[in-house]
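Bug #77: duplicate submission created two jobs. Keeping one. Sequence:
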Amino acid sequence: MNIGFDLDKVFIDYPFFLPDFIIDRFYKKKANGKLSYRIPKKPEQLLRLLIHHPLLRQPIKTNIDFMKKLASQNTHKHYLISGRFGFLKNKTQKLVQKHELYKLFEGLYFNFGNQQTHLFKNDIIQRLKIDLYVDDDRELLKYLAKKNPKTKFFWLNKKVRSKIEKNLFAIKVLPDMFS
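Kept job's structure:
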């Protein structure tokens, strides 16, 4: 089985002093009601580079520990599929090295070419024939679930555990994807 995971809010947390809705507002834009992600201009890129400082982006230890256990079983192939844009390439590579994420995944895929995040992830999910995929972005998952009806998608959040759509489920912790 091929299992995909997002990076931010799955393995690396947002800065503790910024509420999620503020970060989401920076990243997404509404374009005629369709899903769209903002690729920031240079001044905002500098701000985001500061916010991506390792001291502000702490690992989510319970999820990394779960991933280590899962990877050690050698029963599935695991892939990291992140929508991080190209201006974060150096920060992202340092983060991957620091937390040795490259040891846990068969492949690491980042959106350094600055595609629309949902299109990038859809392409990778289809190319790798992902069976299960975990992300924290519910709107993105709704889009992906419609495009990939044979894949099970999991919205990782802190409040809800339920079935949302035929192939989209809300989970509170990573082990819930196997229950």
